[in-house]
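sorry to bug you again but im stuck and you know this stuff better than me. what follows is a protein written twice so to speak, once as letters and once as structure tokens for the fold. id like you to explain what the token line says about the fold, in plain words if possible. anything you notice is useful, everything is just below.
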Amino acid sequence: MGIKHGTPDEWSRLWKHYEATDLASERSAVLNALGCSQDKDTLYNYLAKILDPHSNVRSQDHYIVIRAVLGEKAGLAAGFQFLNKHIDSLLDEAKKDETSPAEDNLKSIVNLVGSGISTDDEMQIFSKILTPYNAHPLLSGTINKTMTVANDRMKFRNEHQVALQAWFNLNTPSTTPSPATTPRPTEVTSPDVPTPPPGPGQSTTPGPKPSGAASTVLTSGLLVATVLICVRNKLAAL
């Protein structure tokens, strides 16, 4: 079933595999795979691991986790929840420690959550969370840019939704199965007439086919014999 439609236990087993492996390429692949879950709570808890210094996720790998969770639609609710709960603590950490990845992480989350918005309700939730921070020196630029892009995208969608839907309907291949092709009728051939078994003393091996003058004599003889048989039958009927 995999992580996408799997259970929390299956997710936990893959997380333990991440903790056990030392291969950098494998750890990166597992971090991406862990974000495929469709469960909101699982995705939120996974995203929250970037806040835990003991989670075994290196700071340089935080963006892999952020992108893995927020790169799909299922992660949007987890992103809203994360921002609502942790935006203040991340800003405080970024202010206290300039070497902390908190500021970059927060900006990445704001950008990716904004890029996943596709409905007016989602836009309202996003705006409600970020409005109190519009003037924050660390976050105002990111918020303004992200909100502008999201609003432009929503405006375009609302203005052209009917035309876009019509275009997709026209250009999307039909999933209706094509009618079955009527098979061509099979040519019926007459069955081979069985060869009568040979009489006593006759060979089962066919003899050579007569040709030339011999064939003509044989044909004439058969015709004469046929005529004589017909005459005999007529005389017998008198």
In short: Residues 140-171 form the longest helix (32 residues). The two ends are 95 Å apart (CA to CA). The chain has nine helices and no strands.
